[in-house]
Amino acid sequence: MRFFSSNDKSNKPSVARSSLAAAAIALTSANVVAAGCSGVKSGQACITLCNIDTGIYIPFPKLISGISLPSFGLNFNPSKGSVLASAPATKVSLDVSDAAWLKSLGPLTKVEIIGVGGQIGVGPTGGSSVASIALPDYVNSKGILLDGVTTFDITNQAFNPTNAAGAAALFKALTLGSGTIPVGLSGYADTKIQIDALLDAKICARFVEVNVNSTLTGLGGLSQTTITSTPKLAGGSASSGLQLGVDLSIVNPSNINLALNTDVSLALAYQGSTIGSVVLSNFSLGQGTNKYSASAFLFPDSKNAAAVTAAGNLISNFVTGTSSGVSVGSGSAKNLPILDSALGALNISQTLPGAAGTPLLSNGVVYVSTLSDGSDGNVPFLAFSSKVFGFNPFEIPVAITTIKTSILFENTPCLTIDTTFNNYTIPSKGSAQTPLFTVKLPNSVDGPSQCTSDLLNALLSSPSITVDTVSTLTIAVGGYSIAFPYKQNGLVINIDFDTVPQ
Predict the structure, then answer these.
(1) Is there a contact between 474 and 315 (Cβ–Cβ < 8 Å)?
(2) Which of 206, 214, 182 is nearest to 2 (CA)?
C-alpha cells in the first residue's frame, strides 16, 4: 500500500530545513541520503521535508498499524473496462512508539496526518494483493493526536485488478459470504505530517511498510431477496418468450455499495429445470433495502421436454392463484466477466405469487343436433357443438389458440374438446365468447356411454348442469405461444337443442 503526497504549496514561513534534517540524522544509524528517496529497505522510511526531494532513511515500521473501511463502493464502467472505488471515512490507526526521532524535535502536543495518497493493495488475508486502489497525490484527513486514529475519504479512485483470477475470487467471497469477511491491505505508505513543535513545517514519511488486516461485510448471497407483488404480464415475443414484470426487494446486509451500470441476467428455474431468466437492468446495489422493477422471461428450451412442462406448470399455478417456489441464480453481468464467478454461484430461492385465481372458463353453452335417430338402422348419433366464455386475468390482451378439454360429469370423462382458434383474443382483465367449436361424444357401437347418457339425462331434466374440466390451453402473446395444464371445477353449461348458431 503506497500513499504519495503532493508538494506543499503553502506560502507560510517554515522552520529551517537543516534543523529538521540534523535532528533526524542524529537519531538514525542509517544516515543514508538519496535523491527521490530511492533505495529504501524493509522496516525503514524515508523522512524529508515535503517540498524537497532528498530524504533520510530511518527505522519507522509501525506508523500505520491498522486500516478500517466502514463503507466500500465500486462503480463499474463496462464500456471502458474501468472501476472506481470509494471508501468514505476510512480510518487509519497510527502507532509512533518507535519514532523516537519525532520526540527529539522538542515538546510535542500533536502530530497530525494531513495528507495521504498512492495505492492500496487489496487481497485475501495472508495472501498477495489482487487489486490496487489508486489514490490522488493528496487526500485531506482530519488530523490526529500523537497516537490514535485519523480519517480520510477515498472518492472515485481507480480500482485496478492486478490478478484477474484472484480479483474474481475475492468478489465471489464478498458476494456469497455472510458477516465479516477478512481482507488484507499491504504495500507501502507515504504520509504528510504536521508537527506542532515545528510550527507550520510539514515533513513526509515515505515508503512506510504496511501489512494490516481489515474487514468488509459480505452480501450474503443476496438471500434477503423477496418478490413484493403479483407479477404482471408485460408482453411476449418469439425471441424472448413471455415477459413478466416483477417487483423485487433486495436487502443488502453488507457495507459494500455496487454500481455495475449494466444488466444482470439470472437463470430462472422451476421444478428442477431452467425455464427462463430474470433481468435486472442497469443494476446497482446500495446498503440496506433496494427496490427494483425486474423483468422475468419464461422461455424454456423447446427441445427440453422437462423445461417446457415446468414452464407450463408455472403458468398454470399463476393463473389459478397458486404460489410457486422458484430459484434464481447462475447469473452474469453484461460486459463484466470478472463478476461471472460471483454471480454464477448465486442461488436465491423465491416464492412467485399467483394471480387472483378467477376461473378462465365460464358460462358454457352446449348445442345438440340429432344427426340420426336410429330409424335408418344406424346407431343413434347426436352432434354436440359449444361456445364458452374465456376470462383473461392478465394486464394485456391474450389470445387462446387451442383448447383440449375433457369434460367430467360425476368424476367420469363424458365429452372432449379439441379445437383450434384462428382469431380469438380476450381483452385485458376481460372476457369474450369463443367461436363455435365441436364437442366430441365418446360413442361406441352400442351407443352412448353410460356417462354420456347420464349427462344427457341431467341436461334434459335441468336447464343447466355443473361439470369439471381437465384441459390443456395454449395462449399466445406477442408471437410467443405456451401451453399449460388447467383444471377447473364447477363449470356451468347450458343445453340448447336444434338451435345451433351459424
Answers:
(1) no
(2) 206
pLDDT at 14: 36
Rounded Cα–Cα distance for residues 55 and 36 (Å): 7
pLDDT of residue 119: 67
Residue 74, phi then psi, degrees to nearest 5:
-125, 130
Give the ranges where 111-208 is alpha helix by DSSP (H).
Answer: 164-176
Amino acid at 446: D
Rounded to the nearest 5°, which phi and psi values hold at 470?
A: -125, 115
- The Cα 156–Cα 76 span in angstroms is 11
Distance (Å, whole) CA 71 – CA 109:
31
For the chain of 502 residues, list the mean pLDDT of each consecutive stretch of 10: 31 38 42 53 62 53 78 95 90 69 54 59 81 65 55 85 92 94 80 58 65 91 94 93 95 97 97 97 96 96 96 94 94 95 95 84 76 48 78 92 90 86 92 88 59 77 85 94 93 73 56
Which letter does DSSP use for residue 196 in this model?
G
Using DSSP's 3-state secondary structure scheme, residue 27 falls into: coil
**Residue 341 CA to its chain's centroid (Å):** 14
Taking the whole predicted model, whether its pTM rises above 0.85 is answered as no
Nearest to 242 by CA among 289, 185, 309, 299: 299
Residue 305 phi/psi, 5-degree rounding, is: -60, -40
The answer to whether residues 254 and 227 touch, using CB atoms and an 8 Å cutoff, is no
Specify the pairing of strand 347-352 against strand 324-333: antiparallel
The candidate with the shortest Cα–Cα distance to 268, out of 238, 292, 244, 237, is: 244
What secondary structure letter does DSSP report for 220? G
Three-state secondary structure string covering 254-297: CCEEEECCCCEEEEEEECCEEEEEEEECCCEECCEEEEEEEEEE
**How far does CA 87 lie from the centroid of its chain?**
22
